[in-house]
Every structure is written in structure tokens, then in C-alpha cells.
Design brief:
- This protein is α/β, with parallel strands linked by helices.
- The chain contains 9 helices and 10 strands.
- An 8-stranded parallel sheet has the order 2-3-4-5-6-7-8-9, with helices on both faces. A two-stranded parallel sheet has the order 1-10.
- Helix 1 packs across helix 2 and helix 4 packs parallel to helix 5.
């Protein structure tokens, strides 16, 4: 019944005329996916789970959720970079490359069974090669081709583009989420809004025009816990989906952020979600009630088209009532959704 309902929604979206992607000549799979996602707005929300970072990234979290709930998450979250937050560092020690070959195999596996993938980039610090959240560096350097930081940054962009092109060859669309949480100064990009907007628009132009990437759906996703988010918004012509990264127990506490950015009219997603508390808590069940979350979304953020639970102790399967969440009529899972 869920699949039939979605087919009817898609028909309605086609008749009404869905939004088109910002990418010129976007691939047919990317445009179909975008149309299908648009059709969910105000009606259903796709389930999602982040799968972890290299070298510990796998599809185990999806398997854990299925074991508990008999349902597969629709969206799997990945990142091309490693963070060594909860695993030993790997070589080289600095200026680590994006691990796209390893991650792309997981994306392919998820795609081949009907899943959708979203990709964030915790990019290596371009000034010193340290972790993404090392804040060393003057952001304006990344707009100046004469600086060493620009050269390091562009090398990363080219390597990431290689990974995205590899997926494009297999007609795999990607919900692409670069420069995320730009409102939070915990990482090297959390600096001047005007500079960040320029970085974003330059990246869109570089990937769509120079690199000819047609499989991307561009997601702009600030962290919800800061004021005046639209100061960082690069403009309607440079964004396909807007989102919020939310780490709160109650969505009502950040509803003002939702109201602010949905004024753009773009489709909306909860691009990261985690309940309050230590994300690295020891193994075992945590106390957040995921079963009550669908009603929270409907009440506070009704246009949500997907939600991506974040890693480790924030995960769906590590908290209470995963089955109630995954079987709620408002939530659509992998087997409920086609495009």
C-alpha cells in the first residue's frame, strides 16, 4: 500500500510540475530522484542512517536496524574522509585523501538493492593537513589561486570529483552535502558567511561546468542551533534541497530555524539528527525514544522529506523503539520508495 501511495504522489508531482535541479542537463536518475523526493513533502519522510567513517565504515548499521525492525533504511549516509574520532589514525598522518574507492563500493551495494545515498565531506584542513575541525587558516585563501592552501583545497576537490564521476558512470545519483554545518565554528570552514557563500557557488560551478558532474543533488545544511542561518545561504540557483543538522531531543526547540530556511521554498530534510548526550557512549541501548520522533517531525517540521540519524550512540538501532519509528505510517523505508 505504501508503494501504491507513492506512485500516486509521483503522478501528482508530475502533473503539478516538480522543481528541476540546478545542474544543467542533470542525469535522468538524478532528476527522477529529485521529483520523487519533492512528492514526499508534507506527506511522508524517508528513513536514513549514517554508516560511519573510513576505515570503520560499513553497512552494518543498516543491517542492525533491519534485524531489529524488519525494515531497511531508505537513505544511507557516507563521507569520503576519515576522522579517527573513534578508530586509530591511518597513514599518511596528514593531508589524507578522500577514500572514495572504498566508500563507492558501499554506495553501489546500497544502490543495487534500491537504496539512496547521501554524501558529506569532512575535508582535510587545506592549510596544515590536519582533521577537518582544525580551525587553522584564513578562509579567503581558498579563493586565491596563488596560495598553497588553495592548491591543497583544489587537489581535494579534484579527487572528490573523481569519486563522484565514478558513481556517475553507473548512473547513481548522490544527495551531495559539502561545506555542511557552516554556521558552527568547530571546523575550518566555519568562518565568514560571505566567503563561504563564494566557496559554495565556486564549487557548484566547478563541479557542474568544469567537471561535468550531472548526478548530484546539492544540499545546503547549516547546523540548526545558530541564529540568522540565511546569512550563509548562497541563493536559490545554487541549492536543490535545504536541510538542518539537529542535535536536540525535541524538534520544537529549533522550529524557528526550520521556519527561517523553509521560506526559500526548497524541499527540506533533517540532514543529521542525534538526541542529546554522549555520542561515544558504550555499546548498548540508549534512552531516546525514536518511536515518538515521527509525530515530532509532523508537528514541527511537516515538510521533511528525509531524516538521517547520525552515528554510534545517536543511531536508530542504539536507542529505544526503533521498530515503532521504522513502521510508523509517516515513515517510508527502502522498500516503500522508488524513483
Amino acid at each position: 500500500m505504501k508503494r501504491l501511495a507513492l506512485t500516486l504522489l509521483l503522478l501528482g508531482a508530475t502533473i503539478a510540475g516538480a522543481q528541476t535541479l540546478l545542474t544543467p542537463n542533470a542525469s535522468a536518475p538524478a532528476q527522477r530522484l529529485y521529483t520523487a523526493l519533492n512528492a514526499l513533502s508534507g506527506k511522508h519522510c524517508l528513513s536514513g542512517q549514517f554508516m560511519g567513517w573510513y576505515p570503520a565504515c560499513s553497512l552494518d548499521a543498516a543491517n542492525q536496524i533491519h534485524q531489529q525492525t524488519s525494515n531497511w533504511v531508505a537513505i544511507a549516509g557516507f563521507d569520503y574522509y576519515e576522522t579517527f574520532l573513534n578508530v586509530p589514525p591511518t597513514k599518511p598522518d596528514t593531508f589524507k585523501p578522500p577514500r572514495w574507492r572504498y566508500i563507492n563500493e558501499l554506495i553501489r551495494a546500497h544502490h543495487h538493492v534500491g537504496g539512496i545515498s547521501t554524501l558529506s565531506l569532512h575535508m582535510t584542513n587545506p592549510w596544515n593537513g590536519k582533521l577537518a575541525w582544525d580551525k587553522t587558516g584564513r578562509l579567503q585563501d581558498l579563493l586565491d589561486p596563488t596560495t598553497p592552501a588553495y592548491a591543497n583545497y583544489k587537489q581535494q576537490l579534484d579527487q572528490v570529483a573523481d569519486g563522484l564521476a565514478d558513481l556517475q558512470q553507473d548512473n547513481i545519483p548522490i544527495l551531495f552535502r559539502p561545506l555542511h554545518e557552516m554556521t558552527n565554528p568547530f571546523w575550518w570552514g566555519g568562518q565568514n558567511p560571505d566567503t563561504l557563500k563564494q566557496l559554495w557557488t565556486n564549487l557548484v560551478h566547478y563541479y557542474t561546468h568544469d567537471k561535468k558532474l550531472t548526478n548530484l543533488i546539492w544540499i545546503w545544511s547549516p547546523e540548526a542551533h545558530y541564529p540568522n542561518l540565511l546569512r550563509y545561504y548562497p541563493g536559490d540557483n545554487y541549492v536543490d534541497i535545504i536541510g538542518l543538522d539537529i542535535y536536540r531531543n525535541h524538534l520544537s526547540t529549533v522550529k524557528a530555524a526550520y521556519d527561517e530556511i523553509t521560506a526559500t521554498g526548497k524541499p527540506f530534510a533533517i540532514t543529521e539528527f542525534g538526541p542529546e548526550g554522549d555520542s561515544f557512549a558504550s555499546q548498548g541501548t540508549r534512552n531516546y525514544d525514536y518511536g515518538a520522533l515521527p509525530a515530532q517531525i509532523q508537528a514541527n517540521m511537516p515538510r521533511t522529506i528525509f531524516i538521517l540519524a547520525w552515528r554510534d550512540a545517536w543511531s536508530i538501532y542504539r536507542n529505544k523503539n526503533a521498530a515503532q519509528f521504522m513502521t510508523h505510517p509517516y515513515i517510508h523505508n527502502r522498500d516503500d520508495f522508488t524513483y
